[in-house]
Specification:
The chain has nine helices and nine strands. The protein has helices at residues 18-27, 36-47, 62-76, 128-133, 136-149, 175-179, 187-199, 205-210, 214-236, and strands at 2-6, 9-13, 51-53, 80-86, 93-99, 104-105, 152-153, 156-160, 167-171. The strands form four sheets. Strands 1-2-3 form a three-stranded antiparallel β-sheet, covered by helices on one side. Strands 4-5 form a two-stranded antiparallel sheet. A two-stranded antiparallel sheet has the order 6-7. Strand 1 (2-6) and strand 2 (9-13) form a beta hairpin.
């Protein structure tokens, strides 16, 4: 479980099991998408049982929803994202690892006359009557305070291509990036992973889908890999 608490928001998230991971991958089996608004609706329909929010989730801003989705991935799979990036200049492919914690800077507003709420439109922090009473310098002072102390969501990561050193801006709010965030696998390799664990005889397919979280599955997989390596090593050395 993970709790997000900022301004007037209090959101509790629960990890999703393998069957939900499968359903999320199935929305975009190739990891390609170009419609963020439609995708958010689809993702939230699937993930709604794993989200508790003190306000109607439909009233949250897009950046908040995107961060909630990445946070669900963090507690279900891993808090590190490892995605393939292609440099548009030299066409070099490389892996980019980034932490989901980089996407949000949580703060709170604590000053008289300003509601401790989260809004993207600064004027929503003031009622219309208060705005009328502010002179320009007072308004600028309040605006600067809000900008500096309001929670900020930023999904753009600035990096350099390791091959040509071109400066790149990678936007993880891009629907293609978001579509790939819910699992370490595409659909084919997801089923390959489940089949391998199932055939090992240690975990049933039903348990892999219904009872085990994705991060637990990876732990089991690593343990089995280590055991296989030890068995093969023993065979080579003549130990029965």
């Amino acid at each position: 479980m993970k709790k997000l608490k900022y301004h007037d928001r209090e959101i509790i998230l629960h990890p999703y099991p393998g069957k939900i991971e499968r359903d999320l991958i199935s929305l975009h089996p190739t990891g390609e998408s170009n419609n963020l608004a439609s995708d958010l609706i689809d993702y939230l329909l699937i993930l709604n049982p794993y989200i508790q929010c003190n306000i109607n989730i439909e009233n949250l801003y897009t950046n908040e929803l995107i961060f909630i989705l990445y946070s669900l991935r963090a507690i279900s799979v891993s808090d590190t994202i490892n995605q393939q990036i292609e440099c548009p200049k030299c066409r070099n492919d490389f892996r980019l690892k980034t932490s989901i914690t980089n996407f949000a800077d949580f703060k709170n507003l604590n000053i008289s006359g300003i509601k401790n709420e989260y809004h993207e439109d600064i004027e929503k922090y003031f009622d219309s009557e208060k705005l009328k009473d502010l002179d320009i310098s007072e308004y600028d002072e309040f605006e600067s305070y809000i900008i500096e102390n309001r929670t900020n969501f930023n999904f753009i990561q600035h990096i350099k291509c390791p091959n040509c050193q071109t400066e790149l801006s990678i936007d993880f709010a891009d629907p293609n990036k978001l579509a790939r965030c819910f699992s370490e696998y595409d659909l084919l390799n997801f089923y390959k992973s489940l089949t391998r664990l199932s055939y090992s005889g240690r975990v049933s397919m039903s348990a892999l889908l219904n009872d085990i979280y994705p991060y637990e599955r990876e732990i089991f997989s690593e343990m089995i890999n280590q055991e296989i390596q030890e068995i093969n090593k023993a065979k080579k050395s003549g130990i029965r």
